[in-house]
Every structure is written in C-alpha cells, then in structure tokens.
Amino acid sequence: MTEFKPLVFSGVQPTGNLHLGNYLGAIRKFVALQENNDCIYCVVDMHALTAQLVHEDMPTQIRSITAAFLAAGIDPKKHIVFNQSQVPQHAELAWIFNCVARIGWMNRMTQFKDKAGKDREQASLGLYAYPSLMAADILVYRATHVPVGDDQKQHLELARDIAMKFNLDFHDKIVPTGLGIDIKVGEEPVHAYFPMVEPLIDGPAPRVMSLKDGTKKMSKSDPSDLSRINLMDDQEAISKKIRKAKTDPDALPSEMEGLKGRPEADNLVGIFAALADKSKADVLSEFGGQQFSVFKPALIDLAVEVLAPLNAEMRRLMEDPGHIDAVLRDGGERARSRAEKTMNEVRDIIGFVR
Given 20, 118, 144, 183, which is the most exposed site by the fewest CB atoms within 10 A? Predict the structure, then answer.
C-alpha cells in the first residue's frame, strides 16, 4: 500500500434530543459523503458518560441517533453504523493515546474549559481525556477524513498531533513491519502508521446557532426548548419556535456585508440556505429588503417540508427497536473486525506479546 485508503469516520453523542444543528451540521453531510466514500458512522455512547454518568434511558438515546442516521438516508449495508461500546478496541487504543498525548496538549483544549466551568477540580477525568478517545475513534480505523463542525477542529488537530507523535516515536518499530506509508507533513518525510486525518467542513450552515441567542451554538443541553428545533418536533412546534426566534427590527439586507453584527439574522439566513441547498447570498438576493414577518413564514414552510418526512421515518423506526438493534449488531461486528486488525498491528509495533 503506497497511500492510505480514503475512509470517512464520524460520530454523534447520544445525549438529549437531536436537533436541527445536528442534522444540518452533521447527519445530512454523512448522507452526502456516503455516495462517493467508504464511511463508518458511530453512536459514541462511551463519550456520553463524560456529559452525564448515569442516564435514565441510554438504550433509547442510542436507538434515536441510529434512527436519525437511517431516516436521513444512511445505508447501513454499504457502510457501517454501530454504537461505540460494541467495539472495545476504541478504549484500548485510547489508553495508548493517553500515553502518547502530552498534558500540555490537553490543557489547551478549550472545550474542556467551557464544559468544566469554574469548578474544574470536580470535572471527571473522562471529560478531560475524551479528546484522546475521540482520536482513537478515528484512528482505530485509520480514517483519513472526518466531517466536523468548527468547534471540533481543535480536537481533530489533537488527533493529528497524537498520530504524528506515535509515528515518530515508533518509527524504528514501524519500518520493519512494512505496515507504514511514506507521507510528507509539510516538508518533513514521515513513515507513518496512522494518517494525518483531514477535516471536512463545508456548507452554508456548518454551525447552527440558538434561536434565542445567535451568539451561542444550538445545543441539546440548553434549558430552553425554544432555543432549538428538535428532529422529533411536529409541524406546530417547528412553526412556534421559528415565529418566536429572536431577530432584530431591521429588514434583511441584500448583500452578505449587511449580516455583520446581526447574529440572529445571520443564523436564520444560514438555516434557510442550508435547508434549501443554497448559498446565503442566494437567500439574500431573494429576501433582501423584506421584513422578518415575510421571511419567517417562508422559513417555516421550508423547515416543515424538509423535516416532516425525516420526523415520520424516525418515529416509524423507533417503533421497531429490534430492527435498530440488529443494524447496530451487524455494524458492530464489521467495525470490530476492522478495529482488531489495527490493534493487532499496533500491539506488534509497540511490542506487546499476543
């Protein structure tokens, strides 16, 4: 093998209701990527423990994410759909990566600072170290590309740092195995076992913001349900939330420059653009000069048109948990086979006896 085989990996955490931001920023991209790529999509249930240790109904949360994958159009036969805890190799590689990563790298992770808040001494070790598990999620399949939002770019950079350090530290062990690939990182030639994974960030709404505050990301954990459109919301709920979405008194601008300093307007235009598969500029050319009293009803109609079929299919799938579990078992078996091949090679490179 002279180059790493292209492979897309991504995961969604089963905590709280999936919302529009998850769909536009992640799941819909997953569907598009499967057309021309080998893809592995994971429900990262082990990561869910970093947000909350004891969950009232973890199985339902896992199945809900899986239902969203399937309802959106991901093909679990051509690709792999599974839940993370079915593949213990993720945790095994994460421990090795804990030993590769440096404390200074982890201390720079801004998401830990944001999530831990002021009382970091009470935060779990899992929350602190989870970027290392995220790196293992990706690299246990030697994935080359990950669709991510802007907020995850730092974690992907960490995955690249971990991969590079492993490649350099174990260079003399990798070469004799014949398992490495000659790559260049900048101008530096590296005989690499793990690839330098690349982010996939595109589309008009890579980061969907709260309907109540355009400066904050739409979140499953926001105490106000009016801040987000859940994928299981019915037509009435979608309409109510968009009508009540925060705006400003000015008309929509005709040019992109006019959205600067107007986060709520920018967010709603971005949502419309993403739902309609248009650019923000296209949306402004259509609605520029119009008040939100005209724009919001159009956005409601569009959101209902796009989300209603997804909503109905998710509900249908959730009524048959046995089918969802069968999809996850099949995906788990296929994922384990790939992951165990990587781990056997990593064990040999490190020098573990097996």
Answer: 118
